[in-house]
Amino acid sequence: MKRQQKLNTTQSVALIAGIVGEKLDLAGEETRRLAITGALPGVARAFYSRESGGVASGTGEQVWHTAQQDEHSLSSR
Fold first, then answer.
1. pTM score over 0.90
2. Which stretches does the entry tag as region Disordered (predicted)?
3. Residues with Cβ < 8 Å from 67, sequence gap 6 or more?
4. Digit-coded pLDDT (tens) for 7-48
């Protein structure tokens, strides 16, 4: 029987970001950047809200716009 290893926080975040990034069709570095800046949960919510036609699609649009603004401000440093 294989023994399961316990993941540390960094490994857990990387694993979750990888899974979410794959589902959202985002490149690895983009997913990592969104996770580091804290924008990944909002982008995921926006994606699934829009996909399901949910009420929060307007909010998702705002979150995506904010994530894009964050990207611009980070790249201009």
1. no
2. 53-77
3. 34, 37, 39, 42, 43
4. 888 888 888 888 888 888 888 888 888 888 888 888 888 888
Note whether 14 and 33 are within 8 A (CB): no
- The larger pLDDT score, comparing residue 65 to residue 13, is at 13
Phi and psi, residue 54, nearest 5°: -70, 165
DSSP letters along the chain, please?
A: -PPPPPP-HHHHHHHHHHHHHHHHT--HHHHHHHHHHT-HHHHHHHHHHHHHT-TTHHHHHHHHHHHHHHHHHHHT-
Distance CA(29)–CA(6), nearest Å, equals 24
